[in-house]
Amino acid sequence: MQLTQKNINNSNLLLKVNNLSVFFNTPEGNIQVVKDANFSLNKGECLGVVGESGSGKTQTFFSITGLLSSNGYCKGSAIFKGFDLITSSEEEKRRYLGKSIGFIFQDPMTSLTPHMKIGKQLSEIAIFHEKLSSKLAMERSLEVLDIVKMPKSRDLINSYPHELSGGMKQRIMIAISLMCRPELIIADEPTTALDVTTQSEILSIFNDLKSNMNIGIILISHNIGVIAETSDNVAVMKNGLIVENGSTFNVLTNPKDEYTKHLLSCIPPWLEK
Amino acid sequence: MRTNMIKFIVKRLLIAIPTLLVIIAFGFIMMRVAPGGPFTSERALPPEIERNIQEAYNLNKPIWEQFYIYIKNLSVGDFGPSFKYKDFTVNELILSGLPVSVTLGLSSIIISLFIGCFLGIVAAIKRNTYFDYSVMSISLIGICIPSFVMAPLLSLFFGLYLGLLPTSGWNGGNVLNLILPITALSLPQIAVISRMMRASTIEVLNSNFIRTARSKGLSPSYIVRKHVIRASILPIIEYLAPASAGLMTGSIIVEQIFGLPGIGRYFVVGALQRDYTLVSGVMILYASLLIALILVTDILRALLDPRVKL
């Protein structure tokens, strides 16, 4: 709460979420999966969101970006640079999605269109949002692939997703989110499907984006190690509630909530230093 | 890619030869096992005349020799003389009926593909709305009513009661004469294709890569055109060959009902009159068409889905 107080009238403020609730209409009745979530994010900062599977981490951010499945709906507000993403129409929201807000998904293996060349999947974003010519958009794709440290990007833009490895696909996903120079990137478990070495490479890319390009990053993960490595602030979620919210250092060294303590005790003792 | 394609086509054409041989042999035996023959009639012919006829058509020779002669003639593209239509060879009969049947079949398959896919995609996008429900229930009726019921009903309603369209006849390929037969042939296919397309489009719409496309902020119509259709049309491409087989058998009945001088009619009449060569000829044509279509299907699939290698 103190954190949100401090952020009022802050020009660095990028995203402010107030009393966000997410519901699903199911045959068994109405289910609330996120309960009154409050948090905020500054430019160039990283907010880590931790919690077990089913705690509502992903749905919180799907609701902000309008990616909820058709039986889901949400209440509250999510102000992105003075624009409420919750109450706005689909069409208004699309002007921000992919342009100012990039989304990176959990499963890179299935998240790329299988029948479209990588170059097209990247360039179509710039063609659509910035009305670039396809040649300029392709050049932008090469630049962006450079940022995510993809070697031989000239060959790469002519290949199809099935020809790439999991780590490469996740870099492509990051590149997709970077195409229109976004201010906010939401990464939903970006390293879960990857091996440890690839994971640390991907995380170092995130750290670069944050410090060099002043991009605000929301990193959703169930891995406290990943959060500790990249996040400035952390929100702990359980059963749809944000049970603890504060700077990463404070939360991890001096947890207030029982659940956070429990979560921290799950880290194998040989990893603690 | 190109050399791969040529290699693939040549290989498949070579495999087609034994397949066709088996089909020809099977048809040959089936026709001769059926009781009666092309020249049996109620009034018995004098024995010497019968012997002469049998000799002229090689029917007095043992069956394996008849088969050998037939295959030998086939290999140079000669389907033999028709047993019933005197003075006509099977080649001539097939060539005279082919334009009619091809016009009918091709227009039906194209029309059912376009309408079926369109209805399926729209039903998938607007799923669980009244549009979806009505398309799906009408298509269920389309599947249930076979073309031999649909054809006379259409002919009766539009031809006789409303007097809008001719009830039957070819009339030199006049478009008005074609509307009813093509409709009767296409309706069941439209029904099946629209249901398949709806199911596969819904599956694609729920897939992760469409979520990615939505997160890019692209417009819904762009997403459907560029990301959805090419993935969701794959099952329809697979269905192309069975659909064509359905159209072929359907056209036999529809040509009969609308009195169209196509190949289907020769097939039915030939089978009833034990016109051995005519039936074999039409059967070989249908089989080759199907084999060619399956080949086209495989090539199309490889072109649409980069993961498929020929």
Give a quick set of tags describing it:
heterodimer; A: 273 residues; alpha/beta; Rossmann fold; four-stranded antiparallel β-sheet; 26% strand; disordered N terminus; B: 310 residues; mainly alpha; MetI-like fold; 12 helices
Kindly describe this structure.
The complex is a heterodimer of chains A (273) and B (310). Chain A is of the alpha/beta class. Chain A is 38% helix and 26% strand. Chain A folds into two domains: 183 residues, 3-Layer(aba) Sandwich (Rossmann fold), CATH 3.40.50; 68 residues. In chain A, the strands form two sheets. In chain A, strands 6-7-8-3-9-10 form a six-stranded mixed sheet, sandwiched between helices. In chain A, a hairpin with a 2-residue loop joins β4 and β5. The radius of gyration of chain A is 19 Å and the shape is globular. The two termini of chain A are 30 Å apart. With 310 residues, chain B is mostly helical. Chain B has a domain of 178 residues: MetI-like (MetI-like fold, Orthogonal Bundle). Chain B contains twelve helices and no strands. In chain B, α4 crosses α7, α6 packs across α7 and α8 packs antiparallel against α9. The interface between A and B is medium-sized, with 29 and 21 residues.
Q: Average pLDDT across residues of chain B?
A: 88
Number of helices of chain B: 12
**Helix amount of chain A, in percent?**
25-40%
**How much of the residues of chain A is beta strand, in percent?**
25-35%
Counted up, domains of chain A total 2
Question: Distance between termini of chain A?
Answer: 30 Å
Class by alpha and beta content of chain A: alpha/beta
Structural class of chain B: mainly alpha
The dominant shape of chain B is flat
CATH class of the largest domain in chain A: Alpha Beta
Strand content of chain B: under 5%
In short:
The complex is a heterodimer of chains A (273) and B (310). Chain A is built from eleven helices and ten strands. Chain A is of the alpha/beta class.
